[in-house]
Amino acid sequence: MNFLEERILKDGHVRPGNILKVDSFLNHQIDVSVLDQIGEAFYKKYGNSGITRILTIESSGIAIAALTAQYFKIPFVFAKKAKSKNIDGDVFTSRVHSYTYDKDYDITLSKKYLGPDDKVLIIDDFMATGKAMHGLLDICGQAGAEVAGIGIAIEKGFQHGGDELREQGYDVTSLAIVDSMDDCKLVFRKQD
Q1: Domain 3-188 -> CATH class
Q2: Which residues are CB-neighbours of 68 under 8 A, at least 6 positions away?
Q3: Closest residue by Cα to residue 186 from 19, 3, 38, 27
Q4: 42, 58, 87, 99: least CB-packed within 10 angstroms?
Q5: Phi and psi angles of residue 24, each rounded to the nearest 5 degrees, phi first
């Protein structure tokens, strides 16, 4: 069992509707030492891959991306969930569906922060069905950027988003994969 699985068992809570609450340390109140371990784990996996940009989506992915970028010593950029007045110029846009909020929204990213010379590591806190990931992959495709890998803190394996991306050829690294949450009991997928 790795550090993240242990922390999920200690402080995570399963709620009806297959909701895993980790807001006490990951995506509301943040334990920076956990984020640091996450960033280090992604660096160990992708540190020799020539990554030039880390990409995430607002808002929960931002903290993880920031600490991961610190290890790579490169900038990270995040797609916004709405076009705001402070984004100038042309933008990449993609429509995504949020499993957590059960709504569709457009994500946007300024074209000046991602381009065909970039080799991207996409980072996020959770992946369920993979809809947000497909939006970020779409933006990378629009930019002509190469996706070197996808790093996820917690994957809901029973919702198959990660499995589908792996079948499509993407290098997906999830630090904790929850294969089931039946009867409020978490079962993690065994990983190498």
Answers
A1: alpha beta
A2: 38, 39, 42, 43, 54, 76, 121, 123, 151
A3: 19
A4: 58
A5: -80, -10
